[in-house]
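Protein Record: Sequence and Backbone Structure Tokens
======================================================

Structure line: whole-number tokens from a learned vocabulary of local backbone shapes, matched to residues.

Purpose: to set a sequence beside its fold so the mapping can be learned.

___
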Amino acid sequence: MRFDEAYSGKVFIMSREDAQESQVILYGMPMDWTVSFRPGSRFGPNRIREASLGLEEYSPYLDKHLEEVTYFDAGDIPLPFGNPARSIDMIEEYVGQVLEKGKFPLGMGGEHLVTWPIMKAIHRHYNDVAFLHIDAHADLREEYEGEPLSHSTPVRKICDLIGPENVYSFGIRSGMREEFQYADTSGMHMFKYEVLEPLRKVLPELAGRNVYITIDIDVLDPAYAPGTGTAEAGGISSKELLAAIHAIAHSDLHVIGADLVEVAPAYDPTEQTQIAASKFIREILLGWVD
């Protein structure tokens, strides 16, 4: 699938009609083949698009309007149901195309394993990349019940790819003892429970670097985002996550791509999870794209 092909489905509010003239390619990764608890995140991208229709195009936080950034919603990558290995290859190839054209890739998941092939494409295209990971879960396992392709493994794979010293995790409050021991001894940077304050401390040391950012919606407390596959009590508020997004927007980071994953709409009849996710996407578009 080419990212610039015509797409006839639902699109994020104010999506442009021309991919080639757009700064950002917004795309969905409807994959939940390896989840260990509740499936359904493959339906996240389209529900985020639907929720975006209720958004104002103007952000009072950033004093910017969506007409000030050009983005093209390319729809969902047509991933083969139940085939994680082939899906990973397709995502890597797709993001590689986006990067080769000089576009900013902004992905919507889907389970968190989708970030692994994105980072493989990023690593081929950019030098000196730092990886910022905002999540409830460490995702540092080498395998889950014997399966190395799991939504609990992407951050460990990324540590192996770019070096743990270039990986920064925020908001972590769940994982195996071995995962936290790895974080303590490997040289990666893990900040447990909180996001905003440790992020503010880290941003100056990352100034000027190429940075890829992934946000798992379950970093939010289930009170704010019940629609996710592995909800974890004790999380941050929507307000704090917005503040973190804005802190990055006002920093000197060179953000080269991002994704937001693990929205599973079936578990939230109120739709507050996808409504929040759509607002986060709006703020990322307005704040992180040069």
About this structure: Residues 84-100 form the longest helix (17 residues). The first strand starts at residue 24 and ends at 29. Helices lie at 44-52, 84-100, 115-125, 154-162, 177-186, 196-202, 238-249, 272-288.
